[in-house]
Design goal:
With 123 residues, the protein is mostly helical. It is 83% helix and 0% strand. The chain contains 4 helices and no strands.
Length: 123
């Protein structure tokens, strides 16, 4: 029993599993919401804010947890971070008004790749 928290290891593990499931549900819902925004609204300030917030949350919460919990996650996380970095670059171009139609297309394709890669990690 964990004396500081009053939980057994099994209880703590169950709570951790529940929190992980909740995080994955939120992640999936956010992916769908942003994908819908891309279709309905297109690339613009609202999308920049949504995707930026999403990427920050993943880099601070999800990716460190993946590295900690999944064996050999470093390669997958590094690939996700590369995609995310390019997304961030494109979002800056959109924010500055420098994005071209090909940038908009690349952003949509990178977002779809971002979602596919994460869903492959969490079937």
């Amino acid at each position: 029993m964990d004396q500081t928290r009053g939980q057994s290891n099994d209880e703590a593990s169950d709570q951790s599993s529940d929190e992980t499931a909740d995080l994955l549900e939120l992640l999936e819902a956010d992916h769908h919401r942003v994908s819908d925004l891309l279709v309905v609204v297109g690339v613009g300030p609202g999308l920049v804010s949504e995707v930026s917030t999403h990427l920050v949350a993943e880099s601070q919460l999800l990716y460190p947890a993946l590295r900690h919990r999944l064996p050999d996650a470093d390669v997958a996380v590094d690939g996700l971070l590369e995609t995310d970095h390019r997304l961030e670059e494109l979002l800056l171009e959109v924010e500055r008004g420098d994005a071209s139609p090909s940038d908009d297309t690349e952003l949509a394709e990178l977002w779809a790749d971002h979602v596919r890669r994460q869903e492959a990690l969490f079937p």
